[in-house]
Specification:
The protein is of the alpha+beta class. It is built from seven helices and eight strands, in the order ααββαββββαααββα. It is 29% helix and 19% strand. The chain has a six-stranded antiparallel β-sheet with strand order 1-2-3-4-5-6. A two-stranded antiparallel ribbon has the order 7-8.
Amino acid sequence: MDRLLGISSAALRGESAEGVGVPSLLQPLIAARNGFFAFESALLVRPWGGGRGTAEWWNSGEVWRDSYDELPTGLTFFAEDIFGFQFAVDEGGFCSFDPETAESERISDSLDGWIDYMLSEYDEATGYSIAHEWQSVNGPIPAGSRLAPAVPFVLGGSYDADALAAKSDVELARFRATIFNQIRNLPDGAQVRITIE
């Protein structure tokens, strides 16, 4: 944990998150630093303690989760990469979550395992090199934003830094839910015409 925190920002929330419903597997990290950015803002670990931008707010039904017709249950979303692809924790451990397909993939059954993964696979796990390239041209990513292509990745969108734009995390999550709801039952290779609601 010390290695990850050593390359991270200061806490995003100064007060302790003790007693605010932090999942037990995540408590040591949040107790050590209540929310932070790492890898030049490519990784966001949300703080706890209530209010906009916190993990409680992000996990409440009305921010973005209610936009999905179908979403895995039991997941508490606590972090995300530069593209808004998320990391979650449940009773079994830690997983990644693709908001365009609503698929989750188990990373580790422990916090140490998740941290080891983030440190060893940081570029793939966070999009660090793309975040670095984008910010060297455009400046810091605005607060409450992640990077997204004009065409969703699941539909062939580009990961090139010059094809990405900063988008509101909430708007991006809701847009991806709209995409998922429209393509979830289509076979691979199907022609798609997306309707924006």
